[in-house]
Amino acid sequence: MLRALRGRIRCFVWVRGLAVALALAGACFWLSLAVDWFFEPSVSVRRMLLASAAIGLALTLYRTIGRRALVPLSDARMALLIERRFPRFGDSLVTAVELTARPPDENDCHPALLEATCRAAAEPLGQVRLGKVLDGRSLRRAIAAAAAVWLATVAFAALAPAAFAIWQRRCLLLGEELWPRKTALSVEGFPGGVAKVARGADFTLVAKADMLAEQVPASVRVFYRPEGSGRLQTTMIRQGRAIAGRDRYQQYTHTFRGVIQPIGIELNGGDAWIDALRIEVVDTPILVRLEIECRYPAYMARPPRVFPAAGTVPIPQGAEVRLLAESNKPLVRAQIDGGDGAETIADARLKELAEIVAAQRKLAASAEDGDQPPRQAELAERLARCVDPFRRLAAERPGDLYSQALDALAEIGAEMRRLDEGRERRSSERLRGLADRLERAAEPIGRLVSFTRFRYRLQPLSEDRRLAIGLLDVDGIRSPEPIRLHLSVVGDEPPQVAVRLQGIGSAITPQARLPFQGRISDDYGLDRVWLEYVVEGRAAQQETLLKVEAAVTEQSVDGALDVRPLGLEPDQKMLITVKAGDRCDLGEGPNAGTGDRWMLDVVSPAQLRAMLEAREIVLRQRFETIIEDVAQIRDTLALLMFDGAGKAETDSPPERRQTVRLLRIQRARGNGQKDAHETLGVAEAFADIRHELVNNRIYTEELRIRIEQDIVAPLEDLGNTQFLELDRRLALLEKAANNSDEAPALRDSAVQQVDLILRSMRGVLARIAELEDFNEAVELLRSIIGEQEDLRRQTLERRKGRLRQLLEK
Questions:
Q1: Which structural domains are found in the chain, ordered by start?
Q2: Which of 207, 210, 392, 425 satisfies CB 3.0 to 4.6 Å to 184 for a cystine?
Q3: Tens digits of per-residue pLDDT, 464-517?
Q4: Cα angle vertex 45, ends 44, 46, to 5°?
């Protein structure tokens, strides 16, 4: 009986322990199903829940089976358990079991008494029911709980096998599959759950509800938590109202303004949840260096030049331009729009990948229009050719990101082949999905061939170019506004001719010498300088004025044209100008610059002398006027009275007297400056007369010396020295006008200087008059010589006439 009871107890422990464990396992199933259904936790959370359930089951088995099954069950403990349940034994069963288990010992127990005890214990044994020894209620409860839980579980698995399979894949196999929803919600622009936005820029979150799903939510809530802030929520804006059968998706948007810190995002629409989304903030791609390398045309003979580029940049016509740029972060692509089309700067393999994506989208569009999509084997081959070089690059840069992206591209290529071979059904949606997957897989590849520096070469410029430079970095961020650059083409300007006809007036003699002086400049280099002239009744002629040996940009001119070889006659006219050409070899060839044009009248020497003498008379009259002005200055100064001098002024208030004196001094000083300037003008005019006499070769040495030494030099001394001294003295007088102690002496000093100027001016005037007398004498002598020549000619003619008469007789 004791052995049977021991077996029953062990069976009880095992059955109850297993029932409790099964009930707990079923409870874990339902609990995990509820948690996963309502919250859809991440893999890490599900892994933790699965581990917790396993640990709980292990502890339960240990406590209900392991710890109890290993406890030794002796006969004495079994007898005690029976006596507790059946008190009629009166401790006889326990005593008999304990004593019989010992070796026989007369001192411990008398054999007769032991035998009597055993008989007393054996009598009630027939009435003992082992099933009543153990309390079966806990066992029944455990079995009932386990049966109920597992019946429900089996019923759930039988009635909802798809849901049970999803639970297995999610909670046991820890897969990423989601529970089916009545609402199908998705977001755009979060590859890997992360979207990147430029610091300070706006980010528009776009959610799409599938119109083919069972339920389309009326609104979508967005829950977001900026880094360092609390959890916030708002309702997204519904974009229009999609119509089933016409529209595939209903869109909802929300714009985050001026994002400057990372944001965690969750979306809820209907029974659909999207979590674990994150907006990361990155720098905007900009150009930290933008320079222009300008290679000038060969004829300019200039080395290449590099200079910063910003705004409007002047570029010489015909120059070859290269843009040298550097960005603040790695770029995937730089696009330069020059007005006549955009050019992309990127790795050739990346360009090929972008072309494949574009071609795949065209295939999807053609399928939507009902056209038969063309074969995709060619695209698959092109994709394979792109993947192989990228794999070699990825091998040099450790990281799972690149290998995963390349594996995805390879899988897409294999799927393209299967579609092309007809082993899988193709549709516009399937083709469009391939294009989207291609684009997502290609994004990380850009980092393999990113760059921070690039160059862009333009053909030699002949007209203005406006460039717009757009950037795309490895984070998928585009420059918000293109960098604009205006290349303003500056044409090669004609040379600037600043040459004057020196010492020649409007009339010349047939034996004149025409001197030219000045400077000629060109922006890139002179080639030649020449004279172009036209004589009345003749064709235009050219004559080299200056030879330019090197490509200089500035050249002084000091040359002359001798007109004697031209055989000019009085009363003719001559039009002459100075021209210069540069070294430009673009377009129509060198540019020619033209200086001033001079129309010259050809006169006889006598006529020119008469013209110059008339000018001398005008200058003398002008000089006489200047002398009168200077005399008035003296009178003004002499009339200046200071305090205590003169009765007439003492009647006026002191302030008025001071003001009047100051005005007179200032007027005298201004008139003196004017007279000095006019005196220098007269000197310059006489110098021009001297130059014209010399250049027209009608001068005598005595006449030249008279003009130069007796008129021009004294006049220049007056204007540059004596009048300046007068101005200095008048300035001192002006400062001391109210000082009655110093002013009289300063006034007298100024009057003395005016007297000195007047004496000098009258001396010059006398020499001008002498020059006129000299000219009259010379003219009289010329007339006498002319009359003598006429008389001699008439005498010769009479002699010839008489000789003819004698011969006739």
A1: 2-86+128-172 (no CATH), 185-282 (2.60.40.10), 300-313+321-487 (no CATH), 496-603 (2.60.40.10), 607-795 (1.20.120)
A2: 210
A3: 889 999 998 888 888 888 899 999 998 888 999 999 998 898 899 999 999 999
A4: 90
